[in-house]
Amino acid sequence: MIQTNHLRGLIRHFLLTLQLNFRSKQAIAYGYLMPVIFLLAFGSIFQSDTPPLWHQMGQLLTISILGGACFGLPTALVAERERGVWRRYRLLPVSIGGLVAGTLLARLIIIALALVLQIGLARAIYGTPFPVNPVQAAVAFLVVAFAFLGLGLLVTALANDVPAVQALGQCIFLPMIMIGGVGVPLAVLPLWVQRVAGFMPGRYAVEVLQHSVSDPHGLRDAGFGLVALLVIGMAAGVAGISLFRWDTARHIGRAARTGIMLALISWAAVGVVALSTGQLKPVLPANTAWETITEAQIGQITYGNLPGDNELVTRLAPPFRTQAVPAHLAEFVANLHAWKPGHLENVGQSVRNLVYVATIADVSEDSHEGEIARAVYNELLASFDHDDLRRALAWVVLNPDEGAVINLVPELGLFRRPPKPVIRNRNPLFAQKFLGRLQGKLSD
Amino acid sequence: METCIDVVGMTKRYGALEAVRDVSFSVAAGEIFGLLGPNGAGKTTTIECILGLRQTDAGAITIGGIDAISHPEQAKERVGAQLQAATLQDKITPREALGFYASFYRQPARIEDLIERFGLREKADAPFISLSGGQKQRLFLALAFVNNPSLVVLDEPTAGLDPQSRRELHRIIRELRAAGRTVLVSTHHIEEAEALCDRIGIMDGGCLVAVASPAELIARAKAPSHVTVKTAHAIDPVALRALVGVVDVQPLDNGWNLGTTEVRQTVVELMRLLETSRNDLLDLQIFRPTLEDVFIELTGRKWARAVEEVQS
Predict the structure, then answer these.
(1) Contact B214, B65 (CB under 8 A)
(2) Are B206 and B244 within one domain?
(3) Which of A28, A65, A90, A180 is 20 to 30 Å from B118 by CA-CA measure?
(4) Residue of B103, B140, B147 to mutate when probing chain A, most A C-beta within 10 A
């Protein structure tokens, strides 16, 4: 049982850690000025969104937590260790674990204040709404902070000095910023990179925080992300605590490799489970431009210059004579109907993706290219509202470079991978043929 | 006399390196005990094992009757320490630091008393980074007293201090003894150990090679004392060699250097010789063996060379 005087000392250590942090100009600049700069940078890009910055808060908050936990915490701890502060702590009649816990708690508060500052300033400057569910936002913050503070502890244990903290911190920070969905949005990254991001905690941190900020259902759909972060944080935290060094002279040698392996295994395990359970749904741009397509724009589309249905390019088979699908296409049609990229929440991208299938078969010169195109058209008709489909197809015709591009669909039995630019260029032709038929301007 | 520290057969290894080998010694309550040796002799490792900063590979350590290895936290309640290479955060003030460290102990000292006693009043609320070297050292020493310890351990406390600060620190350490505290101090300054300590343990290469009071250690020295003498007229060296106790005679400018095992009798006979030969004495100095001589005898190395070897 903890003694009263020990508890008094630990509380004092926690308060002292906070006090000393707020006396340091560098700590203030890094802990609070940088998050404000990030806010302004994001704000300058997304202030015209509706609502402004609303859909980027997950990224913004994740960057702040990541910085505070994976740079701020280890930098402070390693600097103190280098000065011998922790050697002196070791003389105290309490366990070092209690002092580490106090440091983590202080860091949690330092980071939380930075997030409150960001949310408050976002509201004041850009009118960004507050999180829809503050309690769930707090839970999301605690879980994300748990994961990243665990990583921060591991960095603390591994780094021999402050420059090493910067190097190790960047190894975590940069991949998550660039390809982990934290800095560069997942929606603009290729699908394979999005899958890679599933092996990093940053993707789940952004998802969880974004759900807590803008999803009316809060964290209801963020269960996997929460568990993933807890697993990653637990693994890194256990490794970080077991390797914790109060003295720079104490070397950890081979144990360091074990710690790194434990942390990386947790990342890999989370990624594998996410992949195998379909958690890594493609994230597409929140672009809803297809909905803004007007009748006038649709009306401006002409169909006179399209290649014929029996020509080499954009071959389109006539409607199947009977209602039944030809036997040799039955499996393809069933797979197409279950194909997730063709049935996303975003109708525009779903339609675009289905048209890509016809285009890939066409460019690949598949022996059934015309029938595949017909099957795609049938799937479009069966899956979407008539008016939505008109606007979505028109959006594909008018904006060939928008949205994500798919050029490989082995799951549908098409194994060739045509170049993306070719796919982008040809896709509008099929969309145009489908749109023409849909409106009765082209006959089968 | 009551024993404050009892170290028996302590060994500490770092991989293949045996930093401390089978060290045993006891320190009585109220005693100033010095660990003397060149850098790298094992003093700091010995102290860190006693303080619980390092785990020993063998041996037992008892502090005030408490097994410091199996009950480190109980032992730490009784020990105050000042470490080498351990500073404080730049922005912490002496008052905050003393209050913070004191808060962990059952019987903390009064902070204002410590501030007064260690001359920190003027800088009590100034950030640590603004303190002078001497003020920092006084603060570190004050931190060793936040728990009213019965044992104070000081690891190279005067390293890097100017002569004035060093004298002040010596005064404080003597006051501790007067107040009945036990002090374990490590140093690589021979003069400091000789001037300050009731007993000294000489360490070299991780071993404790001798333990005794400075006077006893010097008395054990086999090296002769030296008497240098300068006179108005020349003296016959044959007459000098005939003096009682003289084992060696070496010429100096205007005088002689006499190695002797009987300083008093040699000096008395030298005075008689000068009187009978009507020679005037210009200068006479006596050099007794020092702890450095003891160290050379015990280790076969000169002190300076031992220090150089460690540094290289």
Answers:
(1) no
(2) no
(3) A90
(4) B103
Q: In chain A, which residues have their Cβ closer than 8 Å to the Cβ of B144?
A: none
- Residue matched to tokens 């049935």: A343
Q: In the predicted model, what is the mean pLDDT of residues B48-73?
A: 93
**Which amino acid is present at A206?**
V
Q: Which residue, among B141, A24, A86, B173, has the nearest Cα to B131 in the 3D structure?
A: B141
Which of A6, A19, A83 lies closest to B104 in CB terms?
A6
Shortest CB distance from B83 goes to which of A24, A87, A93?
Answer: A87
pTM here is 0.72
As a whole number, mean pLDDT of residues A71-94 equals 93
Residue A169, pLDDT > 60, answer yes
Name which of B52, B88, B104 is nearest A94 (Cβ-Cβ).
B104
State the DSSP code for B171: H
The answer on B126 and B109 residing in a single domain is yes
- For residue B140, the chain A residue with the least C-alpha distance is A88
- Do residues A379 and A354 touch, judged by C-beta distance below 8 A? yes
What's the sign of the alpha-carbon dihedral A99, A105, A109, A114? positive
Q: CB neighbours (10 Å) of residue A29?
A: 11
- Flag whether B274 is in a domain: yes
User: Per the domain annotation, does B312 fall within a domain?
Assistant: no
Domain count, chain B: 2
DSSP string, A309-356: TTSSSS--PPPPSSSSPPGGGHHHHHHHHH-GGGS-S-HHHHHHHHHH
Q: Which chain B residue's Cα is nearest to A94?
A: B73
CA distance readout (Å), B264 to A54, B216, B225, B248, B288? 96, 19, 10, 16, 11
pLDDT tens readout for residues B128-148: 999 988 889 889 989 999 999
- State whether B48 and B125 are in the same domain: yes
* Listed residues B162, B192, B218: the one ending a domain: B218
Provide residues of A within 8 Å CB-CB of chain B.
Answer: 3, 5-6, 8-9, 12-13, 16, 19-20, 23-24, 80, 83-85, 87-88, 90-94, 247
pLDDT tens for each residue of A269-310: 999 999 999 888 777 665 556 887 888 889 989 998 899 998
CATH code for the domain of B248: 3.30.70
Nearest to B86 among A6, A23, A87 (CB): A87
CA distance A95 to chain B (A): 8
Q: Is B31 found in the same domain as B62?
A: yes
Taking CB atoms and an 8 Å limit, are B100 and A90 in contact across chains? no
Helix, strand, coil % over all residues of chain A, rounded to 5: 70, 0, 30
CA distance B41 to chain A (A): 17
Would you say residue B214 lies in a domain?
Answer: yes
Q: Name the token pair of A90.
A: 């070791």
B210 and B85 within one domain: yes
Instruction: Report chain B residues whose CB lies below 8 A from the CB of A6.
Output: 104
Q: What rounded mean pLDDT belongs to chain B?
A: 89
Chain B residue with minimum CA distance to A89? B101
Range(s) of the domain holding residue B230: 225-287
With respect to residue B295, please indicate whether it lies within any of the assigned structural domains. Answer: no
Shared domain for B197 and B281, answered yes or no, is no
B163 and B231, same structural domain?
A: no
